[in-house]
Structures are given as structure tokens and as C-alpha cells.
Amino acid sequence: MKIFATCCLILVIAVVLFQFTGEEKTHSHQIKPLRPASFPSQSESDALTKAHNEFGFKLYRELQKESNGENVFISPTSIATAFGMLYNGTVDQVRSEFDEVFEFTKVPDESFNTANQSLLWNLATSDKLAELDIANSIWIKSGFPVKPEFISTNVEHFDAVIKNAPFSPQTVKDINQWCSDKTRGKITSPLSKLTPDDIMVLVNAVYFKGLWQNPFDKQRTQAANFTLVDNSQVSVPLMAREGSYHFLENDEFQAVRLPFGDGKMAMSFILPKKGLEAYQQSISTESFVKLQSEMRQREVMLLVPRFKIELQNELKRSLKSLGMNEAFNFSMGFSSINSDEPLQISQVIHNTFLEVKEEGAEAAAVTAIALGIEMAAMEEVPVMKIDRPFFCAISNIETGNVIFLGSIFNPLK
Fold it and tell me: Which of 191, 182, 181, 242 lies closest to 15 in space, CA to CA?
């Protein structure tokens, strides 16, 4: 059997409250209730959702240009949430670039933080039958002064854990252990090093696990050929099930949506008829929303690869291509963090994990942003050799947030 697939995965994110304890913690806060004291207007909440989604598809298209036909799988919500925390430290040109790249201008300044807090609450309480956690932390180099307002704002609205640390090799291990704990061991070592010039690391972690409403029968899973872009084939386990799903077929693609839990989260697979490479350049927030609205319930014979992938990206080059430049140069653009030292972003690391199997799907993401006070060493760009022809995204059906999205070109890796 020949399979030439594209997949789109949609998911919601839950917030998890937590407190990280350590020997060198100097900032602390009490665990507060998840529910915000007040909520922004519906239009402001919708504006933040739209900002996250538009940034996600914009970054996805940029990464596709750099991928050379290899897998791309990202979490727009993880990246935008991490940069949302950092946004509270920006001024002037750096702030303007954040507005442009992350579409933050869609949300009024005065409601930006409450909109983020409300979004995390809404995502956390959407589907009680699926496990989904978001965690935030900010690691500060011992002795580096940070404005109290920056700390308090991110603690209050992003539930960020604050940790002072010496930024030694042990600190790298501690950050990686925190990431591993928050992603249930799916992402264990996103950070490889800290330079002597790094003074802060902002980290977001997302973990999702959902069971299909209608699981696949393992006894029906069989090996089948999966056709790659170059028309070569690899053998993959192919799950099979016939059932009633939201489905759409037109001249361009077939699309199906598989619900998790109580149906508020789902994974959508999109199978282009003329190949993934052409389709992925045209997909956008608008086309994705339109596709979801046009799906109708009907009987479908469904054949889906069982696969697991793990990806790592350094996002500096892609973010520069999208218009973020001043943030990667020393400037006073982060003076709401510290008004005495010129700072720059030295690393933007984004790791993701996705596994699809008969029982359901599991996904995780970590975004780590390092700030430095001197020129940081050039990062090594990881080599990705995975090649799979299908698109994926995980989003919330009710709020419309696209939390994960990407293309899978070889389900064996």
C-alpha cells in the first residue's frame, strides 16, 4: 500500500501551578489560585488567540524554507508564552519588534498580561478528560539585579517560578531536570550550555496527553509503505479504523479530525493531493479555520501512521528573518528588566516531541530564551534528517488556539 500523508494536530493547553525549590532561591511567591481575579473582554481574549495563531503559521512557513524537506513541528503557544514573559521587560525598538513578530499589537498593552492569564485558564479548564499542562520559570544569575516589577508581573500573570542560580554546569542540569519533570520525561536536555555572559533564562514547558474517543485496534495495525517526497518508500506501522469523523474532501486535499477526551481537543490530518511541499506554503490561520468549519460528520475508512518524533530548533535565524533584529544586539531595549546593563538574546531553543499511537497522542514542547550581557558564542545549529510528507497541528476546538503544528516527512525517526 502506498501512503502519502499530511497531518494537522490541534490541541489545548492546561496550566499547572507549581513551585520550584532550591538552595539559592532568593525570590519566592505563594502559589495563587489558577482562576484569574478578573477576565479581559472576549474580543481581547480572541485577539491574543489570533496573535498566537498568526505568529505560529508565520514561523512555520519560515522554518519550512530552512528545513530542506525535513520535519517541522513547533508549539506556537509555547514560544509565544515564553516571549510573552520577556515582553514585560522590553521597551522602544525591541518592544516594537516583538509587536511585529508575535502580533502582540492585536492586544492592548493594558490588557496584555490579563489576556495571557485568562488564556492559560481557559485552556487549562477546557477538556477535563485529557492531560495538558503549561509551566513557566525564570532563572536569574545570582547577583544580577532585576526590577521587582518584572518579577511580580510574570509571577502574577504567567505563574512563573523564579529561581536564582550560579549559572554553572549544575544550573544547566537543573533547568533540564525542570523541563524533564514538566514534560513527563519527553524532553530531557533542551539546554546544552550557558555562557559566562548569560544572566537569565526564561523557560516555558507544555505537555499534552489525550486518548482518542475511538481508539484504534492494535490487532488491525499492519506494516505498509509510506512514500517520501523523492518517491522512495519506507515501511511504517499503519493503524486502521472505520468510523464517523469530521471529514472534508475537495480538489486540493482530504482532511479528517479525530477527537480526544470529551471532544474539545482534536487531532486533524490533512492529506494534500498535489504534495505537501506545495500545500504547506499556502496554509494560514484563515485557511486552517475555514477548513475546520467546512468539515462534516461522515463515515471514513481511516489509515494513519503510528509514529514518534523528537525535534530541536535554534530559532534565532528564523526570528531574525521575521523582523526581530534589535533583540539580538546589545541595547537598552530590555531596560524594564535592568536599566543599567545593555542586554541581548543569546539563545532561543525550541524542542518538541510527538507520538501518535493506537490509544491516543502525546505531545510536549520546551522553549528556552537566554539573555546575556556580552556577545554570546555562536550556537551550533542542529542537523535534522527526518523527512515526512504530512502536516501536523494541535489546537483547541473551542478557543481556536493552535498549540502545536508542523510537517512530518518520515514517521520512523
Answer: 182
